Structures are given as structure tokens and as C-alpha cells.
Amino acid sequence: MKKAKTMAKKSSIILSISLPPDLVLDLDSAAKREMRSRSELVREAVRQYVLAAKWRVLRQKASLKAAEQGLREEDIERLVDEWKRGELH
Question: The whole model's pTM is what?
């Protein structure tokens, strides 16, 4: 637990990762094209991956809960649409 507190105080942690050469070439090409650093692109990719993973877990939990209540995918979409229109409270 002590290590987590120490890590929280730093603004960034340096990681060492290995990538296949063709992926490094793609990364460098994107960095040059976008005038950004490798680190910026990798940070963005990790953020997007983590966010997508959180959404996958949330969707899985919601699907299980919906199935328990006998709801199907199309029911969920309809309910969301009704809620957006203010038809549900």
C-alpha cells in the first residue's frame, strides 16, 4: 500500500515496453504526422484502451442485469430512447 501512495505523488511513471519494429515505425510515423511525441500517443492509446475496457465491463454487467429482468437488447435501446425524450422518469 505504501508504494501506491508514493506513486500517486509523482506526475508520471517511466515504463519500459517492447514493441515489434513495424509497430514502432507506425508509431513514429503517426507521431511525426501529428507533431506529437511517442509518449503522448502511447498515453492516449492506453487511456482509450482503459476507457473501452471499463465500458465493456459496464455493458456486461448491464446485460446480465437486463437478462435477469427479461429484457432484450432492443428493449434497452427503446427504453433509452424513451428516457431521452422525457417519457420515462
Answer: 0.65
Would you say residue 55 has pLDDT above 60? Answer: yes
**Domain parsing of the chain, residue ranges:** 20-84
The Cβ of residue 84 has, within 10 Å, a number of other Cβ atoms equal to: 9
Query: Is residue 60 a contact partner of residue 52, using CB atoms and an 8 Å limit?
Result: no
The C-alpha cell of 3 is what?
508504494
The overall longest dimension of the chain from CA atoms, in Å, is 54
What is the residue-wise DSSP string for 50-67?
HHHHHHHHHHHHHHHHHH
| Residue carrying the nine cell digits 437478462 | 67
Q: What whole-number distance in Å separates Cα of residue 63 and Cα of residue 57?
A: 10
